[in-house]
Structure formats: structure tokens, C-alpha cells
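Notebook entry, structure prediction.
Reason for the run: the old model in the group folder had no record of what sequence produced it. Starting over properly, with the input documented here first.
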Amino acid sequence: MTTVESQQMTGIDVTVRDLGRMPYAEALALQKRLQQEVIEARSRGASLGYLVLVEHRPPVITISRRKTARRHLVATDEQLAGAGIEIAQTDRGGDMTRTRAAWIDD
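New structure, fully documented this time:
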């Protein structure tokens, strides 16, 4: 994990956090902690922000809270697990997202 010192951008101190490769749940937990830091800082009048860079490993398909989103996934859980792909529920809207760059092969 790499952290770049804060830079002044548009009046907000922005810290770039390059997390490298990380499981989705671990990256999400860190992002939520950083979000709380930002909320607390801004409630005190401070200007704080983060730019988080991360590649999810293993690859993951996030499925939104929309009731019908899951039915758009045509692969079974077993097929996805066999391909090394995780499934994660999210609290966002929309449908689903595959969060791995298709052009990267390991």
C-alpha cells in the first residue's frame, strides 16, 4: 500500500492512497473508514479528501440492492467460484459491476 502526501486541489487536501491489489471487502472497509475521517474532518471545518486506487483480487462482481439485479447474472455461484470470481452485495443502486480490468491477465 502506498500513500502519497497530501496535495492542495480545489481547496481540499487530497491524499492519494494506492492500495495495490486487495480483496473487495477489505478495500470497502478501508474506504468506509476513510469516509468517516472525511465526514469528521469536515464537521470541524477542515478540508480533507482521499483518492483511493485499488485493483480487486480476486475479481469480484458487485450486485446492487435493487431486487431484480441478481436475475441479470446468468452464471451460477459455482461457475463463478470455479473461475475465481467473488460475488458481493452492495448498498448502491444500479445493477451489477464487474470490478476487474479485462485487459490484465495474471
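Summary: The chain has a mean pLDDT of 84.
The old model has been moved to the deprecated folder.
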